[in-house]
Specification:
The complex is a heterodimer. Chain A is built from 11 helices and 10 strands. By secondary structure, chain A is of the alpha/beta class. In chain A, strand 5 and strand 6 form a beta hairpin. In chain A, helix 1 packs across helix 6, helix 3 crosses helix 4 and helix 4 packs across helix 5. In chain B, strands 2, 3, 4, 5, 6, 7, 8 and 14 form an 8-stranded mixed sheet that branches. A 5-stranded mixed sheet of chain B has the order 11-13-12-15-16, with helices on both faces. Chain B has a two-stranded antiparallel sheet with strand order 1-9. In chain B, strand 4, helix 4 and strand 5 form a beta-alpha-beta unit. The chains are: A alpha/beta, B alpha/beta.
């Protein structure tokens, strides 16, 4: 018997185009399991992406799916959600797509706090275009455009989202699918803009250049560089050097959701008519 | 229409940008996404006030690119959508406009053209985005651009733009300019009974049989609104009739040609132009937008001097009204093409008429309108 979450997949589109061992599969599975846990109907769901390896995910998923331009997925999603506030809108995006070319849309969606969920697959590299360094590539790492080591200081995407006003921010990683599903489910269920950063492996483009060419080794490396947020609170800054805390980072249920705010606009406009 | 049935029209004295916004609402537009930019901002001002009054939605996005994205997203849910911008914003929107063209989503984009390249002359007129309207986004795609000259025409042409966008599943441009956007004019608002509002073709097949680019329904395949039971995929990658990516050369060729046919096979529905004193004209003028108003005065002035001038005024600029211009060129001794740029549509006139007659431009880019006397001087040269 097929797993219950396969109803969210277009099984006839599989096999997928990702490299064997790619972390995106783990993330897609966590996402579909979260949809299933919430019993969301595919008819009420839109999944929107930009450009990159991660952004090919909607093609494999059985809902309203839109593969847009590089970096702009959040703006398309905002149009869908704002036009149909009672439907579910999810964006899936890579680190380059979401935080470089799409950085402006990212911070403004956080600020606006429109009720949708953004899953950012952070694999520290531009995978599809051939392994160039991204805004999350660690300092010193090798990439196709940093053959002498990256000097660009990376973004902390989760902190950026929190600072910009996202009302639900979490970070998970592909080494822990169960935790990831729980964090995504929390974000989907949250009424406001939720960001789930997922640390993922691109062994093909990132790993190969950084002595982590084997997917298991790279996932292991990612898992070891994470610290649960509760444990992190007790650690010194020095101990946290080079580490990523994972778990639910921020949740604010009082921040006004954008579409709710607009309901008041409609009410005021129609009363004064 | 029978005059006895005609309802009394509302008479207003509005600037062009307000006319544009009200016309969009009359056309059924219920979603606007935009970003502030001179000289188009008044359109956003009106939409932000009026849309919630009529149950619509207005959103000011973080930039021009996002506004275009949000517009496409809302159109996918079935809304009639509008954005308004000017030169720099038009440039920024180009990639997403290409996306809208390629995934075949109806939307209307108003560009209130200003002067100059780059930041240019934000508060002054220009007509220098006309070639950008045709070729601004990368790749091939069909284009419709409409250039009204009078405010009553702004109203009716915006309604027509929404209808064309819907029935052909594509973006439609309204190219105004700073003069039209800001000048106020008396106009009568047509009663809704005087025009028809059209909708995009929607699927009649069951969801499991639905394909978003199914050419068995013709060159404009039915488009399902999001959240109505039709779950479909689309992508800015070249795609086949199912909406999924393909690199098959035959399918890519077929789909791009089908898209082009939406315009090339519907020229009778799309092309609109106006003629003023062309019947016996010996000297022709080809003009569009606010410049055509000066051209009309120049024609009258020339006639007073005994020169038989006539004006062919393009209301639809793209697709270019090739046949009327070619026909006109066989009748006249020469054509004057005044435009508030350094010569853009003149290339199109020359392309279409070959060696039929000489063509001269009147070109100004200083932000001030072209005056009738300047056009008249060229008419006299050719006469």
């Amino acid at each position: 018997m097929a797993a219950p979450y396969t109803k969210y997949l277009r099984m006839n589109r599989i096999p997928h185009m990702w490299c064997p061992g790619c972390g995106i599969g783990i993330i897609v599975k966590a996402l579909t399991r979260a949809f299933d846990a919430l019993e969301w109907s595919p008819d009420d769901l839109a999944l929107i992406s930009g450009i990159g390896c991660t952004s090919r995910a909607p093609g494999y998923m059985n809902m309203h799916t839109l593969h847009t331009t590089h970096g702009r997925a959040i703006s398309f999603a905002t149009g869908v959600k704002f036009a149909r506030p009672n439907k579910h809108v999810v964006v899936i995006s890579g680190d380059g797509d979401a935080s470089a070319i799409g950085g402006n849309h990212l911070i403004h969606a956080c600020r606006r706090n429109i009720d949708m969920t953004l899953v950012i697959v952070n694999n520290f590299i531009y995978g599809m275009t051939g392994g160039q360094y991204s805004p999350t590539t660690p300092v010193g790492a090798r990439a196709a455009t940093s053959p002498w080591g990256n000097i660009d200081i990376p973004f902390n995407i989760a902190e950026l989202a929190k600072g910009a006003g996202a009302s639900y921010v979490a970070r998970g990683h592909v080494g822990s699918g169960v935790q990831l599903e729980r964090l995504i489910r929390g974000g989907l269920d949250h009424k406001g803009f939720s960001v789930i950063e997922v640390l993922s492996n691109c062994h093909t483009q990132y790993g190969r250049r950084n002595r982590l060419a084997d997917p298991i080794d790279l996932i292991d490396h990612i898992a070891k560089s994470t610290v649960n947020i509760r444990k992190a609170a007790k650690m010194s800054d020095g101990d946290m050097e080079g580490k990523y805390f994972v778990g639910l980072i921020h949740k604010d249920e009082n921040r006004r959701e954008y579409c709710k705010g607009y309901e008041q606009v409609i009410e005021r406009a129609q009363m004064s008519k | 229409m029978d005059n006895t049935d005609k309802k009394e029209r509302q008479v207003v004295f509005w600037p062009g940008n307000i006319v544009a916004a009200e016309a969009a609402i009359a056309a059924g537009c219920r979603f606007f996404a935009g970003y502030p930019i001179t000289p188009s901002s008044e359109i956003a001002h009106v939409m932000s006030k009026r849309l919630p009054e009529v149950g619509g939605r207005f959103i000011q996005m973080e930039d021009e690119i996002a506004a275009m994205g949000a517009l496409i997203g809302a159109s996918l849910t079935g809304e009639k959508v509008l954005t308004a911008t000017s030169g720099p914003g038009f440039s920024l929107k180009q990639e997403n406009i290409g996306f809208a063209s390629f995934i075949e989503v109806p939307c209307v984009i108003i560009n209130v053209m200003r002067g100059g390249p780059s930041t240019g002359l934000p508060t002054a007129l220009g007509q220098s985005d006309v070639m950008q309207a045709r070729w601004g986004t990368h790749g091939d795609r069909p284009v419709i651009a409409i250039t009204p000259s009078y405010l009553d025409e702004v109203y009716t042409e915006i309604i027509r733009a929404f209808n064309l966008a819907e029935i052909l599943r594509m973006p439609v441009y309204i190219l105004l300019d700073e003069v039209l956007g800001h000048l106020s004019e008396r106009l009568e608002i047509p009663d809704p009974s005087e025009y028809e509002l059209l909708e995009r073709p929607r699927p009649t097949v069951p969801p499991e049989e639905y394909k978003p680019y199914d050419s068995s329904f013709g060159d404009v395949p039915p488009m399902a609104d999001y959240f109505t039971g039709y779950r479909w995929h689309t992508t800015g990658l070249n795609h086949d009739q199912t909406g999924f990516p393909t690199t098959d050369p035959k399918i890519c060729q077929f789909e791009e040609e089908r898209m082009e046919r939406k315009v090339s096979q519907n020229l009778d529905k799309i092309i609109s132009y106006d003629e003023f004193m062309t019947e016996d004209a010996e000297i022709g003028i080809f003009a569009f937008g606010s410049t055509a108003r000066a051209a009309m005065v120049a024609v009258s002035d020339a006639r007073e001097k005994g020169i038989k001038a006539g004006l062919l005024r393009a209301i639809t600029l793209w697709p270019f009204p090739e046949e009327p211009v070619r026909k006109f060129s066989k009748q006249v001794k020469g054509i004057v093409v005044p435009e508030a740029n350094l010569g853009q549509m003149i290339y199109e006139v020359e392309r279409v008429i070959g060696c039929n007659c000489p063509v001269v431009g009147v070109n100004k880019v200083g932000g001030v309108p072209i005056y009738p006397g300047e056009i008249l001087a060229k008419i006299e040269e050719l006469a």
